[in-house]
Amino acid sequence: MTFWRPVSDAFRRSPALPYLNPVKRIRRRHEDTTGKGMAKKNTVEEDTIAEDVVEEDIVEESIPPYEYEQLDLTKQQIRLITLHSAARPSETISCAIQTFDTEADLHYVALSYTWGPDHPKQTILVNGQQLLIRQNLYDFLRRYRNYPKNVHKLWIDQICISQAHEGERNHQIRLMSHIYSRSLSTIIWLGEDSREAAQQYREYRHVGDVYTLCRNIYFTRLWVVQEILLSPHKRVLCGDTWLDLDDLFRTVHTNKSRSVLDLQLIESRYTSTAHKRGHETLLIA
To answer: Which sequence ranges are marked TM in the entry (predicted)?
Structure first.
C-alpha cells in the first residue's frame, strides 16, 4: 500500500453485540518474536497496557468474513470502531464498527503506524465476523484493548476503510487531513521491536536509546510527517511504554550527537511543514 496507512467528553461506548461464543476454546502458543520474554509489569505511571499474550483462542472457521456496508461517497462519512476489552488475555480481539458523518461532533482517537509485512495475518472479530489484519496492527490492538483510557472510538485505516473497494479508498484518502486534524489525539504505534529502547529511554534518557527509536521503520515513511502535523495531540506507544513525541524532539535539540540525525531529519520536516498549515497541500499521492 502506498496511500496513508497505516480528550473531551468521551463517546459512550457502543453496547457490545450479544455474545454468541464464536470462538473455539482451543489454545495455541504465542511466539515471542522479540526474544525478550513477557513484560513483567506496567512501566507507564498509573496506566496499564495488557501483558504479552501467551495463549490465544482460535476463531471458528465457520464464522463468515466481515462484509462492509458501503459508505455514501457523495458525503463525508467515516467508520469508527469501539475496541472491546478482554476478560482474559487469550480472548480473541473484537470490536464494533459504525458509520458517522464527519460533520457530527465526533470524539475519537486516530492511529498512526506502519502496516508492516503482508504476512502473517491475524484474525479479529468485527461485529462478530472475521477480518484479517496484519501483525503490527494486531499487536497494537492486543496491547491497547485493556488500556484504562481506551474509552474513545478509534479510527484505524486498515479496519475502517474497505481495502477491497478502490473508490472508497480514494474517497477516504481525500478525508485524511480532516480525520487526523479533528481527532482528539493520535497514537503513534512503533510496535513491539522498540519496546526495550523505549523503556530504557523513559527511565534513563540515554541518547543512544533515542537513536534506536529513530531507526524504527515508522520514521522512514514520509506520510507520518503529515499525520504528526495534523494531529492536535500526539503520544508514542512502543510495546507497553508511552513516550512524548515532543520530548524526543527536545532530546534531539539538546544533543549534538550524529546518532540522532535520522530523528533530527524527521523533526526538521515536522517543524518546517508546521508553518504551512494548509491541510489540502499536505496530502501525498
So the answer is: none
